[in-house]
Structure formats: C-alpha cells, structure tokens
Amino acid sequence: MLASEGHSGHRIGWLRAMVLGANDGIISTAALLLGVSAADATRDALLTAGLAGLVAGAVSMAIGEYVSVSSQRDSEHSDIAREMWELAHQPDLELEELTANYQAKGLSRELAIEVAVQLTEHDALGSHLRDELGISRDDLARPFLAAWSSALAFSVGASVPLITTSLASASMRVPAIGVLSAMALIVLGYVGARAAGAPALRPIRRVLIGGALAMGATSLVGWLFGAAIS
C-alpha cells in the first residue's frame, strides 16, 4: 500500500471559512473595544458593545457563508444535472470530450481513448465531473456546515478581546486588548499556515499588519470622538 503524501488541498474550503471567521472575530471585536475604550467608556458599556459586536458579527458571518456556499452548491448541482443529460443524450460527444481532456494532460490519442472508455464503463458521471469539471459527488459544498463553522470561529475569536476587557483593570485595558489580540492573531496565523502545509511567517505577518491597522484606526476614531464630546 502506498503511503499518503499528506496534501492539504482538500482542507482549503473549511480552513478558509474557519480562519476568516476567527480572524474577523479577533480584529473586529478588538478594534471595536479599543475604539470605544478610547472614548472613555465604562466597562459595562464596553462589554455591551463587545457582546453586541460578537452576536452581530457571528450572525453576519453565518449568513454570508450560507449564501455564498449555497450559490456554489446550486452551481454544482446544475453542472451535475447538465452532465447527466449530456451523457444520456450525446454519449459519443462526451466520450470524445473525456478523451481530449486526457490528451491535454499528456496521454497519447490511443491511450487517452482507452482510459476514457474504461473510466466511462466504470463510472461515466463521476469521471466527467472529476476530470472535466473538477467536482466530486462526495465532496459537494455544504452551506449549513460553512455557516455554523464561520459563526463558531468568529465567536471564539471575538471572545479573546471580550474576555480581556472583562478581566483587565481600567488602566491596563487598552494595552491588554492590543497585546492579547495580537498574540491570538499570531497563533491563528501559525495554526492556519500549518494546517494548510505552508510556511507560517507570511500569514502571521499579514494578520498582524491587518489587525494593527484596524485597531489603530478605530482607536483614533474613538479618541477623536471622545475628545470632541468632552
């Protein structure tokens, strides 16, 4: 038996949703809390704003992922239905398409025909979906899974600055939110990179720069707004 090489391509879909959700939760909630903190808000006001941001963000992420992945699934079902019709009504043309596909990958005409014929006899629809359209019937898009995983990831990410806000003293609140959120982003960047089988430095740098810009911008807005109404 050949050992698996451990490629990570099959994890791209769910990994993207989870990383995006957690990253969004950390940055948006930390930025919100820092902005409100800069306006000299009380702890209760901060926690209320943070909880509202967590719920709104999680629901928004879930709806966005559900709509997006549902569109992808609708497209996949449409492609499957069209391929089934073509196989039923024009099998010779479909066999030629499959043959041409294998020729384009480097097989000789004779070998491409042989492979196309054997795969068509074994599983015509599966062969066309996989090799012509890049679709697997066992791995279609899952809207509900994407929605729930995104909402959960956002909530977990958002809980980091929110818990920090509830525990830190007033004098340490702003630096604590910034430092712990940055640490969470580093961990997230590392875990996402390792799960995808990629080097970790570049993803960590990306999320740190993006998070710093977002938190800095909202802190400035909060400071300006607080100064204007004081």
Largest sheet: none
Count of helical regions:
7
State the separation between the terminal residues, measured CA to CA: 73 Å
Helix-residue proportion: over 70%
Q: How many domains is the backbone divided into?
A: 1
The number of distinct β-strands equals 0
Beta-strand content bin:
under 5%
User: Which ranges are low-confidence, i.e. pLDDT below 50, for 5 or more consecutive residues?
Assistant: 1-11
Structural class computed from helices and strand pairing: mainly alpha
What's the SSE pattern? HHHHHHH
Shape: elongated
Calculate the mean pLDDT score and round it: 81
Rg, rounded, reads 25 Å
What is the gist of this entry?
This protein is mostly helical. The chain is built from seven helices and no strands. The chain has helices at residues 12-38, 43-89, 91-104, 109-133, 143-167, 173-195, 201-229.
Describe the structure in your own words.
With 230 residues, this protein is an all-alpha fold. Helix content is 83%, strand content 0%. It has one domain. Helix 1 runs antiparallel to helix 2. The chain is elongated.
